[in-house]
Amino acid sequence: LTHAVEHLFNLKFAAKELNRNSKKCDKEEKAEKAKIKKAIQKGNMEVARIHAENAIRQKNQAINFLRMSARVDAVAARVQTAVTMGKVTKSMAGVVKSMDATLKSMNLEKISALMDKFEHQFETLDVQTQQMEDTMSNTTTLTTPQNQVDMLLQEMADEAGLDLNMELPQGQTGSVGASVASAEQDELSQRLARLRDQV
């Protein structure tokens, strides 16, 4: 039982660390956006594009860390219930053996696999966890969609009050692209803020 309590503490600590990593990625994203503006002001579009790709990658990482933090938190709550009810099974004890090293690695794929094993120990997998996994698998890709990059470049140029000499897709004016991008950005920021408050 003492082991289970110790593992419970480690799970809660990992959830906090994942949350902290999410905030770090948020900061990195902001730093990359500032670099985009500078590059655009100097007329260096190639460099601006690289920073835009980095910014989007950081944004996706921030979301992934936040989702995983919520997932680990949910597993911790279940483990706590199992401890309280004295239902820590032998198979669950087996799962936690490699847990500490995995959690410390902050490797999302490894932590995800570990959470899979944990969740397997609980009879009912709630729908929310499944939805989280589906969304995670959609956003863990490291490639950055070029339309997102273009929209971010346009948004940064607009904020800097500059004209972007870039070929935009036909039928899409810069201001429309930018307003769509910033609207999406605002909505996402609000949703993330709400998620953070819940965690």
TrEMBL record:
InterPro entries tied to this protein: Snf7_fam
GO BP annotations, alphabetical order: vacuolar transport
Signal peptide: none
Taxonomic superkingdom: Eukaryota
Family in the record: Belongs to the SNF7 family.
UniProt-listed PANTHER family: CHARGED MULTIVESICULAR BODY PROTEIN (PTHR10476)
The protein's name: CHM1B protein
Originating organism: Heliornis fulica
